[in-house]
Amino acid sequence: MRRIGLLLLVFVLAACSSAPAIEQVTPTAAPPQPTQTPIVIVETVVVIATQPPTEVPPPTNTPLPPPTQPPAPTQPPAATSNTSGGPIVLDNALGKGVFTNLTISSNTLTLRCFPREVTITATALDPLTVVDAEFYYRIVDLQRLYPSPWQNAGKMESDGKGNFTFVFKGENVHPNLRLDNSFLDFQIVGLNKGGGRVDATQKIEGQIRYTFDCP
User: How many Å apart are CA 205 and CA 77, to the nearest integer?
Assistant: First the structure.
């Protein structure tokens, strides 16, 4: 019994005197190195519009209509043509209260073609005052820039009742005044018994075209 106890004691002492066991530590992987902070690059992208913005057109200046110019005071009223082939009746306003029933047989007059003459008629508004009448004429270019001086072509024929007639021929135009393709203007002057001037019609302009040959 004692022997067994001694053996147990020997075993215990042997166990205590033995080197302590070394704990093997399994190496762990090194902790991961902190990654670098990513750099965020912001790139600005300009988006070009597919259609340009609509430009507002500038306000247009609407041209004002040119002012209407009144007709020149000497511009005669247009002649009224008689479609039946009779004389052309002029406006009574051209008689200026002295003559009425103004007519011309044609609105053309030629030197060498037809018609070679034009007949002008007028009636005195007061035949007791206006007993005679004289016929005056002038030649003017179509642009009415160079009128000739007025010429006295002579007295008109009278029936003694205030009606006057004058036949004017193309050859009656003075040779120094003849102008091909021009106007023959005329005016009728009323005379009293003593031959004095009473009054006259307006200057009747642009009613008769004068040419050398057929118009």
Answer: 9
**Cα(154)–Cα(173) distance, integer angstroms:** 12
Question: Are residues 169 and 184 in contact, defined by beta-carbon separation less than 8 angstroms?
Answer: no
Paired tokens of 108: 């053309």
What does the alpha-carbon distance between residue 186 and residue 210 come to, in Å, rounded to a whole number?
Answer: 12
Q: Which amino acid is at 45?
A: V
Give residue 6's pLDDT band: very low, low, confident or very high (50, 70, 90): low
- What is 55-124 written as a DSSP string? PPPPPP-PPPPPPPPPPPTTPPPPPB--TTSSPEEPPGGGGTTTEEEEEES-SEEESSSS--EEEEEEEE
The whole model's pTM is what?
A: 0.62
3-state SS assignment for residue 142: coil
CA distance 187 to 141: 17
> Taking Cα atoms as reference points, which of 179, 188, 189 lies closest to residue 139?
179
Q: Tens digits of per-residue pLDDT, 92-140? A: 999 999 999 999 999 999 999 999 999 999 999 999 999 999 999 999 9
Give 140's contacts (C-beta < 8 A, 6+ positions apart).
Answer: 146, 147, 148, 182, 183, 185, 205
Residue 109 burial class via C-beta count within 10 angstroms: exposed 0-12, middle 13-18, buried 19 and up = buried
